[in-house]
Structure formats: C-alpha cells, structure tokens
Description:
By secondary structure, the chain is of the alpha/beta class. Helix 2 packs parallel to helix 3. Strands 10-9-11-12-13-16-17-18 form an eight-stranded mixed sheet, sandwiched between helices. It has a six-stranded mixed sheet with strand order 1-5-2-6-7-8, with helices on both faces. The longest helix is centred in the C-terminal third of the chain and has 35 residues, at 643-677. Helix 5 links the parallel strand 9 (199-205) and strand 10 (227-234). The chain crosses the membrane at residues 581-604, 619-639, 651-675, 695-714, 740-764, 776-796, 808-832. Pfam families: 7tm_3, ANF_receptor, NCD3G. Belongs to the G-protein coupled receptor 3 family.
Amino acid sequence: MVSVCGAGLSCGLQARFVSESLYKEGDVIIGGLFPVHVEAPEPYHAFTQIKQISRCQGVDLRSYRWLKTMIFTVEEINRDPVLLPNITLGYLVADTCLAEGTTLSAALALVTGQEGTVLGAECSRAPMVPVIIGDARSSASIVVADTLGVFDIPMVSYFASCACLSDSRRFHSFLRTVPSDAFQAKAMAHLLHLLDWTWVGVVAGDDEYGKSGVQLLLKELENTKICVDYLEFIPKSHSQSRIRRTVERIQSSTARVVVTFAIAPDIEVLLKEVMVQNVTNRQWIATEAWSTSILFFDPASSSLLAGTIGFALRRADIQGLGAFLAQLSPVKQPNEPFVKDVWEELFGCSLAQDWQPSSKTPKCTGSENVEKHGRIYTDVSQLRVTYNVYKAVYAIASAIHNMMACQPGRGPFENGECPDVPQLKPRQLLHYLNAVNFTTPVGDLVYFEGNREPSASYDIMNWHIDESGAVNFVQVGQFDAAKGPGQELNINLEKVVWGGGWVDKVPVSVCSASCLPGTRKAAQKGKPVCCFDCLPCAAGEVSNMTDSTECVRCPERFWSNTERTRCIPKVVEFLSLQDTMGIVLTVLSVTGATLTTTVLAAFFHHRDTPLVRANNSELSFLLLVSLALCFLCVLVFIGRPAPWNCMLRHTLFGVSFVICIACVLSKTVVVLVAFRATLPGSNLMQYFGPIQQRAGIFLCTLVQVVICLLWLLLAPPLPTESAGGELGARVILQCTMGSVVGFVLVLGYIGFLAVVCFLLAFFARKLPDNFNEAKFITFSMLIFCAVWIAFVPAYVSSPGKYTVAVEIFAILASSYGLLLCIFTPKCYIILLKPEKNTKKNMMPR
C-alpha cells in the first residue's frame, strides 16, 4: 500500500480499509497507532468492486492501556499552562489490528484525513496529522516509516525496537523512546556468559523484530563460547503443526535455557503448546516484549514459567493514570470505539443488544468494577511501554514548545524563518524533535542521541510465583549501556528464583561438561565447538586449567603427575643402598665375602693338615682371596653411577673372576697331571710345579688385564641418562658399555676359561682318589656356566636398574657356586670330621 504523487497525477490509496479511531479536535493533532485488536480482517481487493467492511478481533488490554495513556498525556499537557500556552493538542488514534496492511492503511488515513483519493492539487498541503506516535511492532513501523519518510512525516515509536530502524539514511524521520534491540541482544549475551550457559536454544517470531533480534544475538555470541543448539521461528499464521514441531524440538534438546525474541501474541501461542506437552525443565529468557506481561499466564502452568528471567524497559510511576484508566464505562462512553470490546474482554460478558438468556456468555451490567477486576488494563505497577508512550507525547509537546519559542529572523530554517505552529510542517517538526532535551514530570531526562533513540537501560526481572499461584515480577538486576565495558550488567543472584525445577541453584545448560585439569577438549565431529570430549593428557603432558584446549609438554627432566595437572621432577632411578633390592644384594655380597674370609681363616689355621696341603694350599688361598674380591666387587655396582665406578665395575669384576677361574683351572690341571704322573714312565709333574702354576695364573690374568686396559683407553664405560618407566617418566642413570666388543671380550674370556676348566674337571672326575677335587670343580663350573648362559638374555631384556641387578645376581650366584661346591666338603672335614683329615685318608685305595 503506497501513496504516489506527481505533477498532474493524483495520490491514491491502494487499500481503503480504515480501522476504528478516536478523535479530539485541537490546534495540533497528534496521530497514534496502537494494536488494540490482534486479528486483522481478511483483506479485500479494489478490483472486486465490492467494499467489504469487517472488524478486527481479539482485544489486547495492554495495548488499549497504551492508547488511553496517550489520551491521558495529551489532556495532562493541555492542563499545563506553561508547556504549551495558547495551544491545545488534539489526537487522532487508530487501531492497527497487529498487521502491516492495516497499520499502513491507518497511518495513511491519519495523514490524509480521509479514505478516498486526494487530488494532485492537494498533494503539497500540510497533512491533517503532522506527527504519529507508533507503531508498536517493528515490522509495521518499517512499512510506515518507509512510506511516510518520503514526505518527512516524523514517527515516534514507543515499542518498535528493531535495530534495523537505526538506519538514519533509510529511516530519517523515525524516532523512538524505546532502546534498540542491539543493546538487548548485548545484554542477553552478557547474561548467558555470566551464568555459564554455553548451550542454549533460541525461539523467535517470524517478523522483523524476531529476525533482527536473533541476528544481533548470534553476532554477539560469535566471539564467546556460547553455542546455539537450535533456532526456531514462530509462524505468523500460528500453524499448529509448526508450533507443535517447535515445542518438540525444545523438549528434545539438551539445552536447558530457551532464549526468546518474539512479541507477546506469538509467545502466548508457543506457551500454550508448551503447557500441552508439559515442558517443565526449561529456563526461559524473555525480551522486553513479554517479560512483564501476564496476559497469557495461567496459575495452573506456574511450574512452567516460574523463574523466568526477562529484560524489561525502565519502569516509572505516572501520577493519576490509574484513576484515569478506571473511568472506563460503557454507560458513560456508549459511543466511544473499543469500549465495548474491552469491557467484554475484561469481564467475559456480552454487551450485545440482541443478547439472549440462552447465550453461553453472561450479559454485562455495565457497572462492573473496573478498578478491582481490570486485570492488566488497570495494572499500573509495571508501567514500562506505557511510560514510553508518555515520553513520546511529551517529546512532541517539548518540540512544539521550542518551536513557539523561536524568535523571528533567528529560526533554524532558510533566512532565519521560524515555524508556523498552527500550520505545522512535518519537516520543521522533525527538526525540533531531533533536538529535544527535557525532563518529564516523572523526573527523567529525555533526549534523542545521534541515531534518534534513547540510551539503553533495562531492568532484569524475575518471575516469582507465590503460594496462591500469582506471579510477581521482582527486579533482580539492571543493564545500563551507559556504564563502562564490563560494568553494564549487574545482577543479584541471591534474589533470583531459577526455572526448570532448579529453584535455588543456577541451572546448568551445557552441551558438554567442563573438562577438568589434567584433560583437554577435543571437538566432536559435526557439532558446535561447545560440544566436545574430554581426553586425558598424554604421559609427560599437563593441563592445569579447566577447559584447556591443549596439554603442555613438561620441560626436560620433568614429568606429569598421575592426575596430569602439574609437572614434577622425574624420578632418578639407579640401584642404590636405599632400595630394598640394593640392600638385599649388599647383604648377600658382604655375607659372601665374610664366608670366604672365614674359610680362608680356617684354611690358614689348618694349613699344615693333609687335606689343605693335598689340595695345594697356595692355590686355595689365592682362590679364596679372588672369591672375596668377586663378592666385594658387587659393591661397586651399587650406588649412583660415576666415571670412576663405571670404569672400575667391569675391570674389577673381569680381573677377579679370571684369577678365580685361573686358580680353579690350575687345580684341575694339577689333579689330571698328578694322576697321569703315577703311570710308569711319566714325568709330567716337573712341568706343573708351583712356579709353573703361578706363571699360568699370571698369564691368564695378564690377558684379561690387557683387554680391560684397551677397553678403558679406547671406549671406557661412562655414566649416562636415559628415559625409562612409563613413556619416559623416569631418568635412568646407568653405565654405558662404552664398547660392546670390550664387554663381550671380557665375558667371553671368562667363559672360555670356565668351559676349559669344566671339560678338564669333567674328564678328571672319576680318577681314583678318596678325595678327588675334580668332581667338586665339575659341579662348580657347571653352576658357573649355567648362571652366565642364563645371564645373557636376562641382561638384555631387563630395564633400568634391573640390568645392573641381573649382573650382580650372576656375579653372586657364580661366586657362591664356586665357594660352596669347592670348599664346603673341605670345611666339613676340617671342622666337623677332623679324624678324616689324615694322610691315610687322602691316599688312593
């Protein structure tokens, strides 16, 4: 519906429907647009040539209160002798029926003053209404502002909060006393962030108010960690199937918080279906459109909406308004539009002349008590949008006051022209409206900022349900955009009653629970960033904050604790005297050395006995000393590795064992040669006397000494650190081989001597002697070889300090094998059976 005007043409109204209106004569007529009814009639088309007159349906009591507030304010201003002296304000107020088409039609009727066609000659005349207060809806305000903006006719809206209307190029003649939704979206984002609601659902009306508000909210949430699970729109047709699907989506979602951006009639339809499906476990967030509206509140559904948190416009108390509203009477105002419909809506009765007793609706008496039963119409405890209407009328009056104060020749227009107040031109009034700065009778300073709208301030309201089931709107906080960043939102959480059954506890609305320290977030494929899995940090990595996105690797020589929350120094591992294993091995070493020393003492004490002398006491003494060294060399393996003990370990071990095996080998050879020398013509003993035995032992030992010296000079064993334990949780201190060849040669040489000794002893085990030492040497060498054969795979496969423990065990086992197998029988005779320690018993039978 547009108005077209040009040279020689006429301005025609494409649609001619005009809703009911209220008119009062005055010097300046202020237009008003209010959605008193919420259901517009079916449109008709000019080409049908049939003019169908039908009325709007469904009364909105709150909107009617807004309309009456405008009338009240005009009358209050007219009684003020100072504000507009000698000027009387009038009004022409029309019903918009909550539809864009009827709103535009009503607006055009206001400014043209008639339904019909305005001739081209009249297109330039001043309109009957130079300014309009309205509309309540953003989508309708956009349509009207686009149309009337061509003629610079100013509009002052009291409830159209869409941020799109802040476009000064497109809507240059549009002003409003309600803040832009851009601030409300920002306030909502702040609230969600403050309460850690990172997983929310959004429901919006399918109009400019809902769509624009949702876009602003999503933009505010872009740089936060808040995600939207679903976005549903309430259709204007209020299709029951679509409403049902929307509520089912709300019910099935894991988001416990539902943010709404819709006008009250749309929310009413939605909440009726919410009650049908009994969706109780939700925390509702309301916009200023319905945060203090009880039109659709049913005490039976108190559990559904209890705890609702909403943003409401600033509240004010308007003196005298309540009494003025209570004057409504169909008896005193029989011909006034809207009164009949409002009265029937208030009391649920009928004022029809043709009322019949059989009717389901009782007949109205006309004397019902409005003040007591006026419901939301007479409720002046939450005057918010109503106060915006009040301020809009005063803004126009203040602009006219300033126009009247203009001094000729000093006016703001061309050649210092001042406006002609009785014949107001919309463009001149728009200029003065943009510059108003006044204080209302309530005491508030009112002015329009650069974008022709007030600064944003919202009360944060909480729905408390009393024992009777009635709702009380309790202010629990405030959002003031004029305050600095981070200080805009102020809320007292102790006063809040929460929804969704939580009551005294802040509801939890998250897609995934926060990841505790020691874990990191891993995004779930195909889902928003708020949905994630918590994966434990890998070994050696930590996270010490909640919701860490990554784990940090510990520095060198540090490792993660069991909880993966902090780095602790790595455990330095080596075989020490503080370990149980180290203590046991040390005790075994010292015990072995003590036993060896005891045997040596016993042999020395009985050195002149036949048994000791028969077995070459000198070799026995040397063997016992070397065995003692074998036991004691274990102590070098226990303790923190250092260069000196790393080089001494295998050197001392290798040389001691070679001396030991060389002595045993010498004994074995002597046994074999001694028995061979008893044969006729044999003279072998002359080559195996004490000197030759010493020389043999020396030569055998010299070879091992040379190997050890070369090893130490070319590639000595040195201490080193390596990672061990669980993926490197420990620092293992150990001695490197330096040269594998050197280690193999040392062990190989010992093994070679042991095998030779074992073979010779095996061949001599059955020689005729009452005390044939060869058989004991055979057993000792068998044990020795078995231990060192088992040592190789155990040594290679043992980790950390257990490598050293395996080597120590091999040394102790082989040493004990030699000591016990060779010297236990002798000690038994020397100490327990001395009668057998005679030369006679030593001789062969």
